[in-house]
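Because discrete structure vocabularies remain unfamiliar, we reproduce here a specimen of the format, pairing a chain with its fold in token form:
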Amino acid sequence: MPALTPRARLLGPPEVPAAARPGRRSPAIATCAALLGFAVITIDVSAVNIALPAIRSSLHGGITGQQWVVDAYTLMFAALMLSAGAMADRSGARRAYAWGVGLFTVASLGCALAPDIGTLITARVLQGAAAAVVMPASLALIRQAHDDPKRRAHAVALWSVGGSLAMAVGPVLGGVLAEAADWRAVFLLNLPLGLLILALLLGVERSAKRPAPFDPAGQIAAVLVLAAVAYAMIEGGHAGWTSWPVAAALAVAVAAAVTFRAVEARHRSPMVPLDMLRQREVSVPLAVGFAISAGYYGTFFTLGLYYQQLRGMSGTQAGLMFVPIALVATIASLRTPRLVERFGRRRVIVQGQLVLAGSLLVLLGFGSGTPHWALLLLLLPFGIGTLTVPALTALLMDSVPSRRTGIASGLLNSLRQTGGALAVALFGSLVATQHDAYDLEGLRVSLLLAAALLCATAALSQRALPRS
């Protein structure tokens, strides 16, 4: 057997075409398993948002507890996304996906059985860690199963649409289950779905293991940064922005951020190559992704509480209010390629942010007596603004060398999750009164902040991104 060159030792053995592998299984099974996993972790986010008032009634904890139920999941998802792709490469996509789905299923059972808010938050941390593994491994499964680029693109499109539909179904499902059964049913639903995915994986061929560097010091520092900032934002609205716990959390965040930068600058294979961030075509899409998710998920969180705590809607009614937005967002995302072809990426990215910012400003007219039909009508442009995401994702992927597409994708998804998590932390603090009631003025301040952030990143996009 000939000796391997240093490059061959680094890259591993060449990938055998799927059609030539012995005992090849159906690629449709791999696609179905990948789509189901992505749908489950997406449904979990939107369904739990609607079940929050029921969780509060059962376990107490106030709005602070509700914020942590959301952010414990999202923060771990965001932080571990930076290195989850490397984990999938080191252990193989199928094995990583199985471990991720298995952990997510067990953690879901822990959520359903939680006797208090602290236990629920701990189980949500485990769910978020598992979701961070499931996300990149699901795409790796699709890539492994489809050699033909056209078939692979079709499978990825199905995967994306499945996630969008899951976002539409999640709020309704969360409302129906919390109202008809109990909020615990929202988490118990993940058990049969998780077992089904694991059964499907038996029909998926084994994945090759590949050498992939891991950066544990950088990963720990990233978790500390996000957790400390979220803690400061959540507690700042309750304990006071100048209180010593908030000041201590911010100090930890700064120290961890400095450590993270130092570690990444010295690591031979950093999670976040600092030179890559100096490219405008990389840094600007990352900033835009953060801003869009902050506006989108932060507003989803506050509106879910608005519908149920201020307007007195049932969980099912509140969930149905989000369906038109999700459907419009799905349609807008499907139309993005044609719009980009006609107008160019920069224009689509800029206009999408401005539409989203404008829709947030329109919502400032919300009151305690606004008719339901008016709420639905005013929220439709909110879904249109999401057409920016496919355009900025494509721009980012085209702006980095192929060896860094996984890093760039993980960084974009991480910053999007971070934007949503920090918006939930900040907006939740703004809408909560001293007696844990819902403050309509806090909602308006939240909308203004999100709109201002989107206008700022839209101006940055217009100035920094290339015309074509």
